[in-house]
Amino acid sequence: MKKYIKYFDEIGIQDIPQVGGKNASLGEMYNKLTSQGLKVPNGFATTSEAYWNFLDENSLRKPLQITLAQLDTENYYNLNEIGAKARKLILGGKMSSDLARKIIEAYQNLYENEQCAVAVRSSATAEDLPDASFAGQHDTFLNIKGAAALLEAVKKCFASLYTNRAIKYREEKGFKHDEIALSVGVQKMVRADMGCSGVGFTIEPESGFDNVILLSGVWGLGENIVQGTVNPDEYYIFKPGLELGKYPIIQKKMGDKKLTMIYEKSKKGIPTVNIHTPLPRQRQFVLSDEEIITLAQWASVIEKHYQKPMDIEWAKDGLTNELYIIQARPETVHQSKNKKLLIQYKLLEKGKVLASGNAVGSKIKVGIPRLLQSPKEGKNLTHEHIIVTDTITPDWDPLLKQVGGIITNKGGRTSHAAIVARELGVPAIVGCQDATATIEDGEMITLSCSQGKTGYVYEGKLSYKEEEIDFSNIRMPHTEAKMILADPENAFQLSLYPNDGVGLLRMEFIITHSVKVHPMALVKFNNLKNATVIQQINKLTQGYTNKQDYFIDQLSQGIATIAAAFYPKEVIVRLSDFKTNEYANLIGGKDFEPKEENPMLGFRGASRYYNDLYKEGFALECAAIKKVRDTMGLDNLKVMVPFCRTLEEGKKVVAIMEENGLKRGEKGLEIYTMVEIPSNVILAEEFAEIFDGFSIGSNDLTQLTLGIDRDSELMGQLFDENDPAAKKMIAMAIASARKTNTKIGLCGQAPSDFPEFASFLVKEGINSISFNPDALLQGIENINNAEKSFVTFGQAASSN
To answer: Residue range 409-416: average pLDDT?
Structure first.
């Protein structure tokens, strides 16, 4: 006897041939994971047999074959016509009384109310296989009420097997049309229209970094995320922190969420409508921290169950305030990638920025922009063209494989445009806000996704280089090779490079780009007089009752992102090392900074931290670091004090750090200091009693050894880290560190630029060398060659 209906409690992942990937996954989670706390709305699914019954009752198999055989599979010029014909055939069919009765019985059995609202979702029987996502290929119908409306929605789902995008997708993936059936899942409606909804990935979707979960969310129905109609909230959750019961949210980014999709209450035949989100709701996160953590825990459970990275959809019922998982499918992009093989793109020149947004991928593309309002306008597109449009919906999919790049005004990292761009390997920048206004049709542009999570559109053709790097051939040396980092946006991608951690995390970049405000302007906000500064700070700190919390949150999130990216490897964050003129450039900074003739040698580094002019600002730096280490559980983070002139100053800084909750040795906290002043070298053994480690800042040390302002155009040619005096200072520092058994490293460009400098450091016995990311691989090669030459030299010497 043919089985047309299966309830979720009868379905498992093994039932993909009968109910498709989407419904099989829902049944699997309903049966296997609700005991672990997940909530999945109950429901039922029509089977592939129901679909074949519908075709046979209406004698549609042959007509569909004939219709599809006429498709031009080279240029797809008649795709619209063929798709419309196929859908018309199915929509013109009539459901057998037996099938209709069984669907209505299942609906009535599950839901006591005969007008209970349900979601009706399509699930192709080849859907969501590891190499085929089918995301957005078929239709979903929401808020369906009553038996008649349900039967009509089921038939429309059958027809959506032949949307233009689905037809083209199957052709490209090599699926035979007449071997694919359409199952329909029916679930009780989650009232997300009155709550919120979103998607999630159990890996970072750009880099494939697997120690974080990315969640995004909007008010109302999740279609606004899929279509990229609004820019959603984004939350990054650190998996090891989640497992340890720590506060695992390492990053929260508020989207504008300008629109909210709700159900249309009138009888106009339009199921949903977008309304403007009230301003207070736009400025409010859609999820509380507790809800973020709950969803992350569920995502982790799902990933562990399937033993692969997953792409999930979630919803929150606005009536009951309950969270639900409404879909889960395998993530298809990074599973097939060789993580040891990387193609690195790098811009070689700068240009005028026309637009910026969320970067998808890491490629650079030079091309001709085509400003399009709908996919119907996309004629004669080639890989030399870059689509520029307001937003991308699944209707655009047939075009996207033809072009070299995608730029949209709207959309986040989890929008349909971003997901499809990743699958196709097409570089995209989504959520640019005003790209269609700032980019001119036909005028050459450079699309760059190579600079981290923010993508930039530049005017004209900029030169760049493309390099293939095979990490599997790189052998790590005995001397540790670490990175110098500043920008959290690059952290996940760069963590995949061969490395021994981060030897220098520059805090200044995070303060400049994320915080933007001088910490003392937040501490003394009520004393500010400048109306413009007050307005700027109020705008940045919206949602914070205590403005100092804004500094702590923004700084801790930036630091935590880098610490999480390299966890459990060591990450050393340097306390702020702005000079007074640089501090003054922060918002509100001019009121709190003295004017100095020579800021390079003035009120900088350690001398600030205990001084009344800054110590309350320093307390905020300490609070951010304490949050990362203690609250988030990122105990791989270590702290470094810059420009510490005297032993007494070192003791004062360590003491004030302890006052602010950062006690040396407590919970494994190590405090390092920079070696960049001759006094640090001369008294290195004494400094070793105060600090746990040293990092040689070769630029400042050379400058102060030779008495040269390294920023001086007149004296610049005399500045040389290879100068014998500078190298002797470095050698002395390393010797003292070895004598006191203190770890010592060096941060600088010289070991990658000059193989002989790397050789000198290795010979002296340095523990680690830190490089800028673009110099890391050359640096590793130079260290390996140096170590090899000393081994060879030692062997030769012992044989003589």
So the answer is: 85
